[in-house]
Structure formats: C-alpha cells, structure tokens
Fold these 3 entries.
Entry 1:
Amino acid sequence: MPELPDVEYYRRYFNATALRQRIAHIHMHEPRLLEATSPQGLGRALKGRHFVSTQRHGKYLFAETDGDNWLVLHFGMSGELHYTKNGESEPEHTQFSIEFGNFHRLDYIAPRKLGHIALVKSPQYCIEAKTLGPDALAIDEETFVEQAAKRRGGIKAWLMDQHSLAGIGNLYSDEILFQCRLHPRTAVADLDDKDLSRIYRTTQRVLEKAIECKADPAQLPESFLLPHRHTGGLCPRCNGALGYIDSAGRTAWLCPGCQG
DNA sequence: AGGACGCCCTGTTCGC
DNA sequence: TGCGAACAGGGCGTCC
C-alpha cells in the first residue's frame, strides 16, 4: 500500500495516538527489519522517552524523540500502523510494537517484512544517506521542471524514481498518467514546459485528494483510475476496457484509448 | 543513464 | 476441489 498518501495518513495517525506518551517498552519481533541498530540499541534510544513531533519525506515517516534522535519507519509493500488498546490482542503480522505507559501500543504491521526501521540523528541525515529526491508534495513547480530536464527515460520510471521525486509509487503514478492522458512510456524529454506544468498540477491534486480520502482508493472519486484499476475495470472517461503493460518493472494500468 | 532482471518476504489469486 | 505458479502497491544490487 504505502505510497506518499498512505504514509502521510500514518503520520497523522501517529500524531493522534503516539505523541507525548511515555514509551515504556518496545517489542521487536523481526530484528531483520532494523537498519544499523539492534533491538537493544532501539530499546536504549526509546525507552523512557516521548515522541515530540513527526515528519514525512516521500514514503518515509520520521518520529522525533526528546532524546536527540528520530525513529525512521518505512513500510515496504505491505506495512501499516495500528494503535492497539490495552487488552486488545496484537494484530497478526505485528513485527514491532511500542508500548506506552498506559499499556496501549502502537503496532507496526508488515506481512511481507519488506520495510525498514532505523534510528537517525535527523530526517535530513536519512534523506541524504538514501539520496532521496525532493518530496513529491512539497516540491515547487520550478524544481519539478528542473528534475524533469535531467531525465532521458520514460515518464512512469521518472515519477517512481525515489532519487528524483520521493513518494510516488506504482499506483499513484498510474493515476497521475491517466489524468494527464499520457502513456507510461512517454519520454520525459519529449514533454514541453506546458506539459510539465500540467503534470505538476495533476500530481499535487492527486496526492492531496488521496490524502483527503485517507489513501483508500475505494474512497477516491469515480472519475479517478484507481477505483477501476482491476481485471474487468472500465475507463471512467470513455468506458473502454482498462488494460496493463509492463513498465519500469511494474504493472502499469492504463486506458489504451485515452492514453495512446 | 536507464531499463531489465533477480532477490528479499509471504499472503492471495490464477490457471491447469 | 486442489495444488503449484505467478503475482502484489517497494527498493536494492548487478548487468548490459
């Protein structure tokens, strides 16, 4: 699931549940998810501390503690957060759990175990270490156009490249390209400034709407691609059958009629 | 550089 | 119906 809108939703969920509580214990069931630290190291950094703020960059969520470091959460292909009240059983596939002084817990759930958990001195440190590009929602139009000028390949690969633009994955790149009526393999170099301006504005609108809909494709407007992005789905614009191709190593859904 | 691939994981869906 | 193969919304390393 987790692309930028999902992670932004998790960030707000984190704020609403975990902020300002005393961290009593941590439970790490899958130490392989840790980057550059151990369960003991994580425990030393978090135990007795409080989360005081959060940030998001692309698909990464950062939670600041009052101990001069930040917890980094990345959700891979299947991660999510769940606030589990005292007495409720732990959700299936919980890999990491933060228990607070009131015995409620924030559970990190990841059936496919493809996410990562780390500690860093600052979000900026992590962004630089992973050479992430500008956040897809925070970027201004001028920088967006500058990023495009550096690219020679296809547009879907560009939108999904976290080093160029952070936050957009397979689903939302499909949505943006559908709304722009562009084929996923359109060469970025063939786009003019007017095209790029339109893509920029569509990207902002799509991401904002997705966040508003809690990143649930089923809640998106009927005019969007995502609610119809499945076998047998019809284009909400021309009513033709949607199809898919392989592009940038993923399954790219599109309307063959509307997107050339 | 960018695209194609394999791999990391495991639950679900597909096809014979 | 049953079972193995293919696939799923991410990201990294390698090769061409």
Note: The mean pLDDT of chain A is 96.
Entry 2:
Amino acid sequence: MKQRSISNAVIERLPRYYSYVTMLERAKVERISSKTLGESLGITPSQIRQDLSCFGAFGQQGYGYSVRDLRRELGHILGVDRQYSAVIIGTGNLGLALIQHFQFEYSGLRLLASFDKREQLIGRTISGVTVLHSRELESFAQKHPFQLGILTVPEDSAVTMANRLVKLKVQGIWNFTNAELGITDPDIIVENVHLADSLLTLSYRMAQREQNP
Amino acid sequence: MKQRSISNAVIERLPRYYSYVTMLERAKVERISSKTLGESLGITPSQIRQDLSCFGAFGQQGYGYSVRDLRRELGHILGVDRQYSAVIIGTGNLGLALIQHFQFEYSGLRLLASFDKREQLIGRTISGVTVLHSRELESFAQKHPFQLGILTVPEDSAVTMANRLVKLKVQGIWNFTNAELGITDPDIIVENVHLADSLLTLSYRMAQREQNP
DNA sequence: TAGATTGTTAATCGATTAACAATC
DNA sequence: TAGATTGTTAATCGATTAACAATC
C-alpha cells in the first residue's frame, strides 16, 4: 500500500466508491468491473482503476473486483474499521437530527454522548445517546476517550468549544458551524460542512441556467 | 461578462470569496488586494485574479478591489440578488435546524413555508415560517411560486418528494438525504449535501495521520 | 483456449502559477 | 511622478484519459 501524496480529488471519490459497493453488497452482487462501476457513477473506468491503484491492486484481470473484497479494502482505507469514538457538542435541532437519523455505524463511528448547556436537556437519552452538561466534557473524556468532536453549537460558542476539543487532543473535528475555527495544530483534522457555500454554488448554477437557456 | 465553461473548481471558490468580502464589508474595510485576500484564504493571488477575470474586470491597477463593489459583483454572479424563494420539505430536526438557524437571507433566499405530513406539526409557526401539510404542496405552489426545494425528509420519502418538486418545475433541489434522487431533467440543478461522504473523508485523514506520524 | 479486464505507462487535457505590460 | 496592483498571456504543474501488455 503506497502512502503519501494522494490527491484531494482521489480522496473525495473514495466515499462514493465505498457507498456504491456497499449498496452492491447489500444487493448480493458479487463482482463489479471498473467499466460497470464507472457507468453507474459517471466516472471513467480508467480513473477508477487509477484511483484504486493508489492503494494497492484489489482486482483481478478478466474478472474485475470482488464486491466484498473491494468494500473491505475501501472501508479499511477510509478508516471505517478503526472504530473511532465521537461526541456531539451542541444538542440543538442539528445535533438531534444527527443523533436520531445519521448512520454513524456506516462510517465505523461510535457515538458516545452528546453535550449541551441547557439544563432541561441534561440527562435525557435520545436514541440511546445521553445528553450531558457541557461542563462535564473534560471529565467525561477522561473516562471515555473519543477521537472525534462533532460541532453543532451556535456560532458564538463554536471557537470556545473547538478549543476545548483541541485541549482534549481529539484527532478530528466535524464542524457544522459557519465559524472559522482557526485551529493551527497540524495533528487535528478539521472537516467543515459549509452549508452556506453549498447553497451558493446551487444558487450560482440556477442563475446560470436562467441566463443561458 | 464571459459566460460558459467556468470550471467547477472556480465555482466552488466563489462562495469563499463572497463570504470573506462580506466579512470585510461588515468590518468597514474598503479595499483589498488579491495578495492580501490570497493570504487570508490560502490561495495564490494569481488564482484569485484568474478566477475573478472569468466574470469581468472588477479591480483597479495599483489599488486592488473595492470591497463594496467586489461583494456586489460576487453576489450578482452567485445569484444572491435574484431573491429566489424556497420551501423546506420535511420538518424534522434537520428542517427545524435550518428554519431556526440558517441565514437564508445571506444567500438571498426567502423561505416561504415548511412541509410535513405529521398532523401535530401542521399550523405551527417556527421563526416566522408556517408548517403546512405535505398534501398542500401543489396548491401552495400555485399561489406562492418557489424556485428551490430543500429536501430534509427521511430517506424513504426522498425520491417521491423529489419527483413532486420536479413536477412543480422547481429550478433547484438542495438534497440533504442520502438517497440518489435520480433526476434526469437537465433544467433542474441538484446539490447534494452528502454528510456521510464528508465524514468519511475526515475519517480517512484521521486514519492517515495515525499511520504517518 | 479466448475473452475480459486489470494495473500501469504514456499522452492529453485542464487548472494553477508565474511573469509582465498596462495603468491607476 | 513612482509604487502598487491589476488583467492576461505563457509556462508549469497535476490530474484525467487512452492505450496496452500482462494475465486471470
């Protein structure tokens, strides 16, 4: 398995491959060729083979890829089998939506707890996840280490809470707030879900479509 | 203003520029050079000038860009001044989170209503937005046309509701469900917020970091 | 075996960066 | 005016696609 210098473009396609072969495995499909996979995803077979070959040789000439094996390999590459633990910081509607509807197991994540500072929420258990008071974050972390913090607080507490996560030496922050967290520690990966940016690209394309019929 | 063939990479940087100059304008900054802007965003000045020049010449030699003008131009390019109208389909936690916390005005959007099929929600007004029954979607659309549908329903109703939006000739769908909507109509822009993919790229980088210290 | 399909090398294409004349 | 900074052209870099020998 060659390490290093995998381009962003490749990394962003991996989850799509993973999601598709997961679906195939559920549908009991046993093998898939880069040609067929490419047709389904709108990607050239060449690119798929090129992407996968960054990580090893998972296929077989004349046959294609074993769906089972490919899924396992992709899962491994994506870290799904690492069983990271996560907590949610901010149990508002967005936090609740994630607790109740997001399939954390799909990404190999265990959701340990959710935090909030509103007293009326503390102690409630939602879909098996207990809401704890934010002030207990550090003591909780000592007893139950976690690697990922999911930031769904209001924008004005974003930086404060992010810094507390940094102090706890989390490895990753999944940031749903619009705030720029300004984390400089190179050991912490921040993935921003910038909904406003997503909506603006949509708006751009809509506007474009109108101008060029 | 040159049309056509703006690359994806450019389009995805525009909202970042917009967001930054919006912040600058709020902070009463009057001018910005591609050099300074580039330093703030981690983008080369060359690229910023190249990107902007796809749409026109907004700067001034020896001076830079007027923050006010640049923001207005970017807003125009992104369609912010089009005042599109939108509705939310699915008033669960995610829909509620958007209604209560997402700044739709920032993208120039008017949120007209929210829909759900659960009787106990119908008629409630949240942050000024009324929840209507899903069955009234079509009659509502007749009286109050909208261009954008925001899809925050459970996965199993995603395709059905998307198709109803297509029939209503919306111009765009902002899809928060994990479902592949399978919309073929080339007049309808679909922007997928694939949270699972976002989390998996984060997981990948976390796993990578661990392997290469 | 013959047909299919991989992994990889080389060729092409597109996006980013550098350079600089134009000019405020 | 002199210094700064644009818009744009050319050079570089990287990513995608095509081609094909290897081989199941």
Note: Chain B touches chain A through 58 residues (CB under 8 Å).
Entry 3:
Amino acid sequence: MAKEKKLDCVILGLLSHEALTGYEIKKRMDTTLHSFWGASYGSIYPTLNGLMKRGLAIQHMDASTKRQKIRYAITPQGHAYVKDWLKQPATIHEVRYEMLLKIFFGAELGAEQALKHIRAFQEDIQQELTALRAMEDILKACLQEDKAHSYYLLTVRFGIQTYQAYLAWCEEATSFLSEGGN
Amino acid sequence: MAKEKKLDCVILGLLSHEALTGYEIKKRMDTTLHSFWGASYGSIYPTLNGLMKRGLAIQHMDASTKRQKIRYAITPQGHAYVKDWLKQPATIHEVRYEMLLKIFFGAELGAEQALKHIRAFQEDIQQELTALRAMEDILKACLQEDKAHSYYLLTVRFGIQTYQAYLAWCEEATSFLSEGGN
DNA sequence: CTTACCATGTAAGGCGTTACATGATTCA
DNA sequence: TGAATCATGTAACGCCTTACATGGTAAG
C-alpha cells in the first residue's frame, strides 16, 4: 500500500461502521469530519464507484422507499484495506488559512483592514465552536453505547481546543493591533 | 476579481515587499508561511511565468553572479492586484489532518495504535513549535525595523498558540486512552 | 572531491471542485 | 403549491504534486 487515495480510506472507514448512501457520507463530511477533512459530491460518488469496481465495497438498492437510494457496504477486502491503512503512519498535515495570508501581508493596508479579517474569522470560529460543543455533549451522553464514541469524542476535543486557541489569538491580535502593534 | 488563484496573490504579496527568485519564494513557503500555506516548485515557477505574461511581475536577470538567477519584481498593476485582494474577505479555511482520521476510526484497531499516532504527531508538532519560537524571538528583536514585522509576528503567534493547543490535546488524549477511554 | 545547497524548470498524472442536470418527498 | 431537503450523478476544468532533468558553487 504505497500511495492510497485518502478519500478511499475515509469512505471505507465510515462504511466499516455502517452501510451508507453517498448522500449520507457527504453529511458526515459536513458534520462529524468537518473540522479536519472534507469532500464534495463530485469526489464522493466517483470514489464510491471506484471502491465497488475494486471489490472494496458493494452496493445494494434500498427498497424501503420508492426514492432511488443506493446504500454501500464494506466488503471483507475493504475492511482489510482500512485496517492496513490505519496501521501506517499519517503523512498528511495540511492547513491553509487565507485569513493568515492577509494578516501576513497586512502592513500593505494597515491595522483597520487586518482587524476586519480577524473579526470575520472570529465569528466563523465561534460558530464552529458552538457546533462542536453540541457534538461533545451528545457524545459524552452516550459514551458507553459504542466503543467508537470515545474516539469520535477525541477528535471533537481536538477541534474544541484548537478553536479555543484561535479565539484566544483573535483577542491577542486585536489588542496588539488596536494598541498600534508594538 | 472573482476567483483569484491564491498562489498568484501569495507570490505577489511576497514580491510587494522585495524582489525574489523562484527559489527564494519556495524558501519563504517552507519557513515563514509554512504553518498556514504551502507550494512546490512545480507550481511556483509556472505561476511566476503567468504573472509575468499578465504584466503583474517583471523579471530581471541578476548579473551579480555567474549562476543563472532570475529575480522577479512586482509591477504597479501587480501591486494594485494584491491590494484589491487584501480588501476582499478571506474564503479559504482548510484543514486536513490524516492523524485525526486515524483517531476517528481508532476503535477499529484499539488504543495502542491510536497512541502511536498521537505520539508521532506530538513529536512533529514539538519540532514545528521550536521553529516558530525561534522565529518569534527574531521578530520581536527587530519589530521597529519594519512595520511588516508586526504582521509577520501575528502569524507566528497564531502558529504558536495553535500548536500549544495541539500539544495540550495530545496529553489529554493520551491520558484518556491510557485510562481506558471513559 | 564530494556533499550540500543554490537554482530553474517540465511533464504526467492525480485529485478534486464547481456547475450543471434531474427528479422525489416532505412539510408548512 | 412552494420551499427545503433528500438523492444521484457527470463534465469541464483547474490546480497542484511528484518525479524527472540539469547544472553551478561553496565548503570541508
């Protein structure tokens, strides 16, 4: 297993817990995994297809509704694939904050502009933090229901601590710039 | 200015402070901007070329050495382009941590494996933090030399506070998993 | 003399987003 | 009946990384 496509692994990981539709996978990306991974429909559906062709997942039509609904389940090969990936050291650490770019070049336009970017960022993060805290409460309430919940909680805690640090920085940076940056 | 390619902006931003070669730009990416943006030679050189063709940067051969050396400077149009970009709200906030993916799916292999991933992460971050603290010291020592230094310092502070939060999480997560995750 | 670093670039190919296209169902 | 959400997908296109290819220079 040299260069696995990470989306293969993420989706297989989700499927290893329960069978899901493409739509549901996207939901997970936008909620549970949102603070550290993302994906669009345009990558999810083709990936699901590839997984099927390689025998790592199988689809079965959900006949419970009239609506077209394709549910994907992991195969034993898929399961082996995830486990193998989970054992390898993690290589991808990527962060891209356009806001920080604008702060870095902030001298060009001055403190007013920079403060605006910080405020916008602060508001975004505050919202993310609220969402994560809600998830934290839910997870804490059902920790013993499933061993996996402890691991989910760990990633939520990571997000919370990170976002708190962001907010602390926002305050520090705001003071610094308000006092003339010295 | 609808969808600017961010690398255009980053490079132009760097050039707005001083004329640089492609190699020097890559250096900045790997040091100063490293904690919140990245780029490879394979994207830097072609971008520099595009910037030239659009009249946003000009190149002048550096005759001071026998070695081939192409230094790029920003044009007034390039400068206007950066300023305009700096005024727009930031849109890109991207974080991808493969380590967190492996923690999220951690129940699959158990606490031992998860702890290994955490330890590796912790070591990486500790190194990054050391590098950032060194940059912080340097910047603090020459804050008044250039107004831009205050803004650079702000981004370094962001990295430091973020990484400290990561390390705090590592400790929390390690205790949690060592005590059986409850 | 050879290692490390300076220096520039290209080609192939992967990965992923955006926008588009379509339609069912539920709820107010 | 209209809006929101459920649900699946494709096509175009852009962006970037990796690997490759080449050579100069400085220091030990």
Note: The beta strands of chain A are 20-21, 57-61, 70-74, 93-97.
